Every structure is written in C-alpha cells, then in structure tokens.
Amino acid sequence: MPKIINHDERREQVAEATWRVIAKVGLEGATIRMIAGEAGHSTGAVHHYFANKDELILFAMDLTWQRTDERMARTSRTSTALQALSTTAAAVLPLDEERRQDVLVWLAFAARAVNDQNMATAHCEYYTRVRRRWRDLLTEGITDGSVRADIDVAAEANILTGLIDGVALQALFEPMTPAEMTAIVDHHIRTLAHG
Fold this sequence. Notes:
Elements: H1 7-25, H2 32-39, H3 43-49, H4 53-74, H5 81-90, H6 97-113, H7 117-144, H8 153-173, H9 178-190
C-alpha cells in the first residue's frame, strides 16, 4: 500500500526548516539546498511544493505570522482586557527560543520587504491584523472599565505595535532578560489603566 503524504503538513515542515536556516544564516544566505537538507528532503521534493525560493519564502513568512496570530489568540484571558494586553504582548516578545527565532525571521523578512512588493504587501496585511487585535482589546478594556476612556484607540494600537516591535528588536542585539522585556511593555500598559 503506498504511503499517504499530507501535502499541507509537508509544506509546513519545509517552512519550519526555512525558519531555522534563516535564523542561522539569514535570508540571503539561505538556499533551497540548505533548506531541503534541514527538512530532511531532497531539493526536488522541495521544488515539488514550491516553484522557487521566493514562493517558499512568502509561504514561510505567511506561516510565521499565522502562527504568531494563533499564539496571540491563544493567550489565556485574565480578568480584564488590560491584563490581556500584557499576555498578548508576551506572546510575541522573544521570551524563549521559539519566539526569538520568530523575531529573527521577522527581521529578515522585513529587510527583504523593503525591495520586494509581494513581501511588503504581506507585511502590511499582517500589521493590519495586529493593530486590529490591539484596537479590539483596548475597546474591550474601555468597556470593562480596565482601560481609560480618554485614550485614542487607533493611536494607542500604533504605539503598542511600535513599542513591542522595538523591544523585540532591541532584545536581539542587547542582553535583555524576559523579565526586562515584559517590564518595559507592562510599564506602558499600566499608563492605560483606568483609575
């Protein structure tokens, strides 16, 4: 009986190998051969799923953001939306090796997006979703009374996006503990508290 191959799972395995290779050698240094080796496949098998490196990179980038979105959505809800802002931020800060790799890969994708319209478009779509998540939590916080009613929700969503990206980027280059990263973000979130 022939072996049944789950093609979606195989594509995700190749994307995960792509992340690991990019985290080690950067986006420009990553080759299909290196990615195939990391995934335990031949280059022909990788080309069966992806026509070229650009297609693979776009898929890997989208999967990175999809998983980040899922991790943010899975954060356990606490008693208030204000507390949910902190737990959601922690879902994307590089507090462990998996999230550190995500930030390294995000940085490589961001650098490439400067000169690649497809990647730039995908970046914009991702940040639209991120800002919407912050706006929803802030609005919920105003409703449940944990967030000040006088804040500009759209502006604050932009501030949180920039703050978290900045802390994540800084943590790649400077020694910063998980406690220090979360303290920076939580300090700002406390300024949003009602009362």
